[in-house]
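PROTEIN DATA CARD
Card holder: Uroporphyrinogen-III synthase
Chain length: 244
Origin: Aeromonas enteropelogenes
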Amino acid sequence: MIPLVVRPAAQATELEQLLRQHGHAPLRCPLLETVAGSDLPRLPELLAQADIVIAVSIHAVHFAHDFLLQTGLTWPHIEYFAVGQASADAFTEAGISASCPHDPRSEGLLALPALQQVSGKRVLILRGNGGRDLIASTLASRGALVHYCATYERHYPDFDGETLTRHWQAAGLDSLLITSGELLQRLLALVPERQHPWLFDRHLVVPSPRVAEMASAAGFIHITIAQGASNQALMAALELRKME
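Structure generated from the sequence above:
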């Protein structure tokens, strides 16, 4: 298959290599760039005060861990949670054991038994600049004291959507690997509206039911929900599609 890889550069490179090893011919076009977040200098203080740390993405973990390494600090011995397996794996790489739900969404995380009784606990959420507030608002309603730390910031490369779309069509693009609702919205904004019927007929792999619902509402027809946003999960979902 000829899938489109749009995730940020480091993960895009790893995913592209994995896909080629399994006989696919991916097209690489990172639609999002990540840089160190402005809140990172506050991270040591926030960690020292936290009882629970929650990461909403692999980037949140990677930038936080790199900052701690550069400053000679370590992760404290407290409870760690990740929204999905990819984020939990990033914690594992940093030497931290983190719990994560089978349902890789904010809703799945909030359903974990360990996060039901959090009254009086101090929760630190590692994320990018902006994003959903469901985790924070729900935990606050359960009595937790919630703080954010924007460990990274998102930037969108300035692409010519018309030129990119023509290139993808000429290359025979047949599938899309989209790892977040944000990347889905970016792709929809980038591809000219008159080309949306072509786009909606590509096979779409997404990491969660929430993103699948967004895609269906937009007009996508062929949607597969992977078991999370990890490169391995995306690969497995594409392999299943190839065998159909």
